[in-house]
Automatic annotation (TrEMBL):
Annotated catalysed reactions: tRNA(His) + L-histidine + ATP = L-histidyl-tRNA(His) + AMP + diphosphate + H(+)
Subunit and interaction comment: Homodimer.
Compartment(s) where it occurs, according to its Swiss-Prot or TrEMBL record: Cytoplasm
Record-linked HAMAP family: His_tRNA_synth
Source organism superkingdom: Bacteria
Organism: Pseudomonas typographi
UniProt-recorded name of the protein: Histidine--tRNA ligase
SUPFAM superfamilies: Class II aaRS ABD-related, Class II aaRS and biotin synthetases
Amino acid sequence: MSKSLQAIRGMNDILPEQTPLWRYFEGTVAGLLDAYGYRQIRMPIVEFTELFKRSIGEVTDIVEKEMYTFEDRNGDSLTLRPEGTAACVRAVLEHGITGGGQAQKLWYIGPMFRHERPQKGRYRQFHQIGVEVFNLAGPDIDAELIALTWRLWGALGIRDAVKLELNSLGTSAARARYRDALVAFLGERLGQLDEDSQRRLKTNPLRILDSKVEQTQALLADAPKLADYLDEESQVHFEGLKARLDAAGIPYVINPKLVRGLDYYGKTVFEWVTDQLGAQGTVCAGGRYDGLVEQMGGKPTAGVGFAMGIERLILLLETLGQVPASIARSVDLYLCAFGEQAELAGLALAERVRDQLPSLRLQVNAGGGSFKSQFKKADKSGALYALILGDDELARQVVGFKPLRGQGEQEHIAWADLASFLASVDLTA
Ligand code: HAM
């Protein structure tokens, strides 16, 4: 017997019951980004593998272990994008969007792919909304990005459940000096390091700072601190950011161990974390990457951005019970028609109503059925009211208007008056 076909592990269907919440979430974010003057960009899902190696970094978990990479029919190595920043930088360079030095505030939405171990809040295909800003080097724009996300948490009713963690990674020169000091310190204590950190000491030592191994964390207590190696410019930048967040009343904590898993960051890095989702608690993360555009072959160009994980934020809305009641229903009104003649009149009537009330969510019964079965379907649709067309209504050129929940008598409305009648009643209450 053939095995039934299934979706790939860690790649989820988003079912019709779930999409209203997704659309509410995506619409809320898009509206906010519009209001702050960000413009949407859409990049391909597949890029040359080289792009991700050069931007995210050869010795990061993403590039070493998590990419969906394949050879296409031309023999090119291609990769399903694991994140959006690299492709966005490639796109702005390719189209000369940042070349003139003018500020660019961009955003994107879409699926990303990482071959991680699936668990709650961690998937192999997941979705991000990301923002990237180019040619603005000051802390003012870092603060705006954070203020924007803070406003979003407010609009979604989840502010109390998220916490902002902040750090500065300094310039690449400062990081290099710190890396040497850290490697020297840990090198002398190699035997006490866990195996993974021993490997990272050679490849990506800063990532040891966010190791989950207790013994390694204990060892780090006496290790050199990144903050002590920060250059003047980065310190001033970081102070500027903190002052702006203080002025705007946005709470944050400094997490000196926050280093992020992608190599392109310098100066500001931040994560919004929640303790409501278990292990996968980072719902939004980002930072500054002033060196990336140049590294990818462009002129020196300041860059800063973030991306939020849509699945995690949807989970958080559900966990906190912050799903607006209005999105539970997708139908306002259900039209039942009994018999061939009533169906003909019903369709014509429905189309006339739609001409005049284009945003009305009117579902017309399809597939016929008895009085009982059509009412059952009307009830199941979630609509609060039904329109009824039977022989009697047909003869009188009226339509029945009947509340489906609670009390209330059926009324009869003349066909000619139907649209104006519907416009005058609140069909959601
Ligand atoms: P990231 O930290 O790798 O950063 O991902 C950003 C967010 O995407 C995470 O905080 C999380 O919410 C979500 N996410 C990541 N991996 C998964 C997964 N396997 N399953 C579910 N959600 C996930 C970046 O991607 C950077 N490009 C962000 C950025 C933009 N930095 C500057 N500009």
